[in-house]
């Protein structure tokens, strides 16, 4: 699936949808086709998707919701973030507004042995409603999230990844041939504390997709290693490491 890098700058969380606009049958079919082409972070985690009218969920936004169901297995939350972020960006390219909706619940939460994980609410937007100046979106200072002075052009873009409550749990240590990605703990937000690891793990999958899109765009090849879920008591928690060949 070819997702334009430029969509990183165009996407935003759509919270107001013009109810006079509607998706066409062809647009919905195209979305179904794209969903089947999403690239997983890790093979071997069974997932499934449903596109249903928003009114069949607790979401109050969008015309439809894309629901994701997954097998509960190591890295399934990272995988969910990585997969659905591809749709968030793809939809922006079609002038379809989307919003990750952590608060949303569908009627069916278990299906064919898979559990509901997260949804994206979406609906037709107008081109002018998308982000015009990404540098104005609120994000943490680079010095908080990125240590080391390598690959700053990548840091400058990857940091615009969306996250639950804009919590931006990613912390990166970067040297010229290795990027180490961690998840910060102790994130304070309006989410119940017990749910923070869940949503922040999805956020980390989103960030990995942004990071890899930036690496590919700048011609960096890499070898990714994922760390075991909650595999250490370290703070921040190691999530992934990228090795780049000496060039
Ligand atoms: C996993 C996840 C869950 C989210 N849940 C909600 C939500 O329930 N309601 C909402 O309005 N926004 C939600 N958001 C959107 C974030 O608030 C938003 O991505 C963040 O504030 C950054 O803004 P931007 O997406 O416009 O760049 C969620 C985002 C993520 C990644």
From TrEMBL:
Q: Which GO terms describe its molecular function?
A: oxidoreductase activity
Oxidoreductase recorded as keyword: yes
Family annotation (InterPro entries): Nitroreductase-like (IPR000415), TM1586_NiRdase (IPR029478)
Alphabetical UniProt keywords: Oxidoreductase
Pfam short name (any one) = TM1586_NiRdase
* UniProt domain Putative nitroreductase TM1586: residue ranges: 5-209
Family note = Belongs to the nitroreductase family.
Could you tell me what this protein is called? Nitroreductase
Protein species of origin: Longilinea arvoryzae
């Amino acid at each position: 699936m070819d997702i334009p890098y430029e969509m990183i700058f165009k996407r935003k969380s759509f919270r107001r949808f013009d109810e006079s606009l509607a998706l066409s049958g062809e647009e919905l079919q195209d979305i179904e086709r794209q969903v089947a082409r999403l690239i997983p972070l890790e093979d071997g985690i069974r997932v499934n998707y449903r596109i249903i009218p928003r009114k069949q969920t607790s979401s109050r936004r969008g015309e439809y919701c894309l629901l994701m169901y997954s097998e509960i297995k190591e890295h399934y939350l990272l995988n969910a973030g990585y997969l659905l972020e591809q749709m968030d960006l793809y939809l922006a390219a079609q002038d379809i507004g989307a919003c990750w909706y952590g608060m949303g619940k569908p009627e069916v939460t278990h299906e064919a042995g898979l559990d509901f994980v997260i949804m994206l609410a979406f609906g037709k937007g107008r081109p002018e409603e998308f982000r015009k100046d990404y540098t104005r979106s609120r994000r943490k200072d680079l010095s908080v999230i990125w240590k080391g002075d390598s690959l700053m052009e990548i840091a400058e873009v990857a940091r615009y990844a969306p996250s639950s409550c804009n919590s931006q749990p990613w912390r990166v240590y970067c040297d010229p041939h290795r990027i180490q990605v961690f998840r910060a703990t102790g994130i304070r937000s309006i989410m119940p504390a017990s749910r923070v690891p869940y949503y922040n793990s999805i956020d980390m999958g989103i960030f990995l997709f942004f990071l890899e899109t930036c690496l590919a765009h700048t011609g960096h090849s890499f070898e990714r290693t994922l760390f075991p879920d909650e595999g250490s008591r370290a703070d921040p928690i190691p999530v992934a490491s990228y090795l780049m060949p000496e060039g």
